[in-house]
Give the backbone structure.
Amino acid sequence: MAEENSEQEKEKYGRDFIIREIATRAGFTIGDARIMFNAFESIVEDIVAERSELLIGKLFSIYAKEIAPHEGHDLATGKPKMRNVGYRLTIKPSSTLKKLWKFGKTKTENPPEGEIE
């Protein structure tokens, strides 16, 4: 059982890990990589704030998905209430990321047909 728990507990990577990896892989200082990462974060925030779509090549897309008006419930009163048009922030992985998730790094070249959703 301990073995099952260790397999389910995956590594969690954060902002500082990404900054260190960018610095290492690109040959920058950690300070320079931090400046670039901060700028990237700011750009993403600006794009999301204006509800525009952001496409990051082989990684993901971020966009606002419109939720049509629908009947819901008022939590305070429990009575039915009509909900106006709303928006949901959606982050969709690219097909490349989906293949990496499903098959790992060594098997992403030619996965079996019908295996990717």
Summary: Residues 15 and 37 are 9 Å apart (CA to CA). The chain has two domains: 1-50, 52-117. Residues 1-50 form one domain. The chain has four helices and five strands.
